[in-house]
From TrEMBL:
One of its GO terms (molecular function) is DNA binding. GO terms for biological process: DNA repair. Residues 274-429 form the Helicase ATP-binding domain. InterPro entries: DEAD/DEAH_box_helicase_dom, Helicase_ATP-bd, Helicase_C-like, NA-bd_OB-fold, P-loop_NTPase, RecG/Mfd, RecG_wedge. It comes from candidate division WWE3 bacterium RIFCSPLOWO2_12_FULL_36_10. This is Uncharacterized protein. Residues 452-618 form the Helicase C-terminal domain. Keywords: ATP-binding, DNA damage, DNA repair, DNA-binding, Helicase, Hydrolase, Nucleotide-binding. SUPFAM superfamilies: Nucleic acid-binding proteins (SSF50249), P-loop containing nucleoside triphosphate hydrolases (SSF52540).
Length: 677
């Protein structure tokens, strides 16, 4: 048996458990070993019976005196065992487990691990784990690993398999060269895998996680190096001329209905520079919704046109494609550039075009010729493989690869982008054109809640239009674990409707409503028939209410800053005054300080960066990891480790073939890591 052996070779795994294991993604011995605990139950402390204290976790080594299966009067099935050690006796109780009586042989010595509780008027253990006392027990008397389970595959079962596998495999060969271990102060792989499954101390867990996290980062970053090197090694980009054309681009920019922001100018310069190189561009343009990404693509496509090349522009939805088509037509009105649109409804291409806009329906169309630039809008909405296909879509028969510009509204902190997206060049539109005045934001203390409502009431009555969003984190109370102050949309709606807003038209909107019902509410809100809408955050997509000017966010401390920034972006769209009031349900100084940043900072990217520093893994990372492999143990906000892994990957990628074990491991990752959106 070795790492790549089929799981069926593991003692104790039969056809039935093999099937079940597949549900957990486990097919090989290696998969099993890398199916890691997500927590540990601390049963490491042994107690004598007389020393037991209620409400602690403990392990007791004791002998069985008697075991009885009992039916209580209320119809419950109990198993009750009396056990003893040299200091005393105690009772153990299990429910609905009459079969265990057979396992508990009278007179034998067992380990019992569990929570100490009062049973009757004495202290005992309720439903403890147990196993025959041995020198090295695996389910009791130690830090016991708890794994992701599925019906039929328990943690206990997995522990036994891992115990066998680790013993049979013996010393697991390390795929990291010794130098990497020494330089980065990492423990060996064999050591790490032993410790992650069978730690003796918390410190064991820590060092094992550290090593395995490094591996995850390192292997992912090797992949980045590979992509970069593959891309850069093709010198077959469409080299465009920037010198003479510059003035033409300049004069086109003069015809735009607005002046470019500094960020837009910079992004254009970077893009045009890339396009005048033989290595094809591979650039990501990031910026909040409304920061003005489209015009950068417009200018780049004009540059391609001046050079005699065509542009393909991919939008994630038909609505967006049509919208961009209109925008392009308007902005190119005074030029001779021809714009065309492909949607599922309109597949036929006009005869001639210079810029073709469409959804991924474009992918299924004819072969394109003379493409100089491919733009993908909202790139995160396309799958990784689709993206790779798109990149090469316009490649000509002579092997010329078009320049590639992708755009995203997901705020990616710079440090992270430079590592995980290390194969891309990045331009950022850090702030938008400020069409909208900034959204005045306050973190409001609870004692000012009622005066805030009064202020809103006044605002609502002083103007005919103008709507208010109130966002609550949950739909119903029953979803809330700790009840207390956290608000649910339904209850908040009822309370406000019969309370402070009783004279105001209110509506309720949440993710569990039927879409017809939702549309009706949104329509009423849009026309102003509903003035105050209580909702959950799920509905952010697609709700565009130009007149909305106030948003209240409840339990704001539960969100990441970048998410809050996106939520507040729903108000002030028309360009008038807009306000965002943040309430907290669980006050803490750190949370308060964190939220305060929203009062002064207006850039999603900057907010995401702060979030990462303050909170570690913020919720926005879900989105960033989307499409990339989700790291199993590595914490993506551990920038120090990420940086180390990055440097190591850059150093070792070029000579990877000298390290056979590493090369093999990297090979298995390549087939496995392909994520999907
Ligand atoms: P996004 O980054 O979300 O794709 P858009 O490109 O759609 O943003 O731009 C949002 C709005 O801002 C559009 O109506 C666009 O016309 C406008 N806009 C873009 N750049 C500027 C600018 N420099 N000055 C004023 N308005 C601008
Ligand atoms: Mg856009």
């Amino acid at each position: 048996m070795n790492l790549s052996s089929n799981i069926i070779e593991v003692p104790g795994v039969g056809p039935k458990s093999k099937k079940l294991l597949e549900k957990l993604g486990i097919k090989t011995v290696e998969d099993l070993i890398y199916h890691l605990p997500f927590r540990y139950q601390d049963y490491s402390k042994f107690f004598k019976i007389k020393d037991l204290m209620a409400y602690t976790s403990a392990t007791v080594r004791a002998r069985i005196e008697r075991v009885d299966n009992i039916f209580t009067r209320s119809g419950k099935r109990l198993t009750k065992a009396r056990v003893f050690d040299e200091t005393g006796k105690m009772d153990l109780i299990w429910f609905n487990s009459h079969f265990i009586k057979k396992q508990l042989t009278i007179g034998e010595e067992f380990n019992f691990s569990g929570n100490v509780q009062a049973i009757g008027n004495k202290i005992g253990l309720m439903s403890p784990e147990f196993e025959k006392a041995e020198r090295n027990n695996i389910n009791t008397g130690r830090l016991v690993p708890v794994y992701p389970e599925t019906t039929g595959i328990s943690s206990k079962w997995l522990r036994a398999r891992n115990n066998d596998v680790i013993r049979i495999l013996g010393d697991i060969k390390d795929f990291l060269p010794l130098n990497i271990l020494i330089k980065n102060k990492l423990i060996g792989l064999n050591d790490a895998l032993n410790k992650i499954h069978f730690p003796i101390t918390e410190y064991d867990v820590k060092t094992a996680k550290h090593r395995l996290s490094f591996d995850e980062f390192f292997l992912e970053l090797l992949k980045v190096e590979e992509r970069k090197s593959n891309w850069n090694s093709n010198n077959s980009g469409v080299k465009m001329r920037i010198d003479k054309l510059n003035t033409n681009v300049e004069s086109f920019i003069q015809t735009l209905p607005y002046n470019l922001t500094t960020w837009q100018k910079e992004a254009c310069i970077e893009t045009l520079n890339d396009m005048s190189k033989t290595v094809p561009m591979n650039r990501l343009l990031e910026g909040d919704v409304g920061s003005g990404k489209t015009v950068v693509a417009v200018i780049s496509s004009y540059f391609a046109y001046l050079n005699g090349y065509k542009t393909l522009y991919l939008a994630p939805t038909e609505i967006l494609a049509t919208q961009h088509f209109e925008t392009f037509k308007m902005l190119f009105d005074k030029t001779r550039i021809r714009i065309s649109l492909v949607t599922s409804a309109k597949r036929n291409l006009d005869d001639g075009w210079d810029v073709l806009i469409g959804t991924h329906a474009i992918l299924f169309s004819e072969e394109y010729k003379n493409i100089g630039l491919v733009v993908v809008d909202e790139q995160h909405r396309f799958g990784v493989e689709q993206r790779e296909k798109i990149k090469l879509m316009g490649t000509s028969s002579r092997g010329k690869i078009p320049h590639f510009l992708s755009m995203t509204a997901t705020p990616i902190p710079r440090t992270l982008a430079l590592t995980l997206y290390g194969d891309l060049s990045i331009s950022a539109l850090k702030t938008g054109p400020h069409l909208n005045k900034e959204i005045k934001t306050w973190v409001v203390p609870e004692e000012k809640r009622s005066s805030s409502y009064e202020w809103i009431l006044k605002k609502l009555s002083s103007i005919k239009k103008g709507q208010v969003f109130i966002v609550c984190p949950f739909i119903e109370e029953s979803e809330i674990e700790n009840l207390e102050n956290i608000k649910s949309a339904k209850k908040e709606f009822e309370q406000l409707k019969s309370g402070v807003f009783k004279n105001v038209k209110m509506g309720l909107l949440h993710g569990k409503m039927k879409s017809l019902e939702k549309d009706k509410i949104i329509q009423k809100f849009r026309t102003g028939e509903i003035r105050v809408l209580v909702s959950t955050p799920v509905i952010e997509v697609g709700v565009d209410i130009p007149e909305a000017e106030i948003i209240i966010i409840e339990s704001a401390e539960r969100y990441g800053l970048a998410s809050l920034h996106q939520l507040r972006g729903r108000v002030g769209r028309k360009g008038g005054e807009a306000f965002c009031l943040l309430f907290m349900s669980n006050y803490s100084n750190t949370a308060f300080k964190r939220l305060k940043y929203l009062e002064s900072i207006d850039s999603g990217i900057e907010l995401a960066e702060i979030d990462m520093k303050m909170r570690g893994r913020g919720d926005i990372f879900g989105t960033i990891q989307h499409g990339y492999k989700k790291f199993k143990i590595a914490d993506i906000s551990d920038l120090k480790l990420l940086e180390l892994a990055k440097m190591t990957a850059q150093q070792y990628y070029p000579k990877i073939s000298e390290y056979h074990e590493l090369e093999r491991k990297f090979g298995t990752m390549n087939t496995k890591l392909i994520g999907n959106n």
